[in-house]
Amino acid sequence: MAGHSPSRVRVILLSPLERLLLIRYRNTDRSGVDNPCWTTTGGGIEPGETIIEAALREITEETGLVDVRFGPVVWYGEDSRRSGDWGITFKEHFIVAHSTSESLSNVQWTRHEHNQILEMRWWSIQEIENSSDVIYPIDLHRFMKPIFDGDYPIKLFEIPSI
């Protein structure tokens, strides 16, 4: 598994109340130690799936939400820090999506999600900025400010690698 670099989609899921959904993961390393962190909804892109198809599948599976409107893919990042000692670099495309509701459900969670997800909640930009919790990507609040204003980058913004 060392050096494996899966393609993933992360969803910048915004609510009607202008809040971002973050999910707190157990983030267990190989030795079984948990390193909890928050990040956006998302996961692996299956063979043959587009970014939008993967994003919709992940949103539905992780949140139960089905009524979403997609915006553009706005960021790309490579993250090896969140994978701990697994030797994985996540290659992630971040897509904007707007939900019509903040009602969440775990009915469609996989066994892995039941094991790894600790909680889900909607965050304001101020809450993200003021939090002392580990949130990925690092400096998310900085990247989010223009997104909340609907000011999407003209070309794909590359999140600094960590």
Automatic annotation (TrEMBL):
Keywords: Hydrolase, Magnesium. It comes from the Bacteria. SUPFAM superfamilies: Nudix (SSF55811). Its cofactor is Mg(2+). Residues 4-146 form the Nudix hydrolase domain. GO terms for molecular function: hydrolase activity. Belongs to the Nudix hydrolase family. This is NUDIX domain-containing protein.
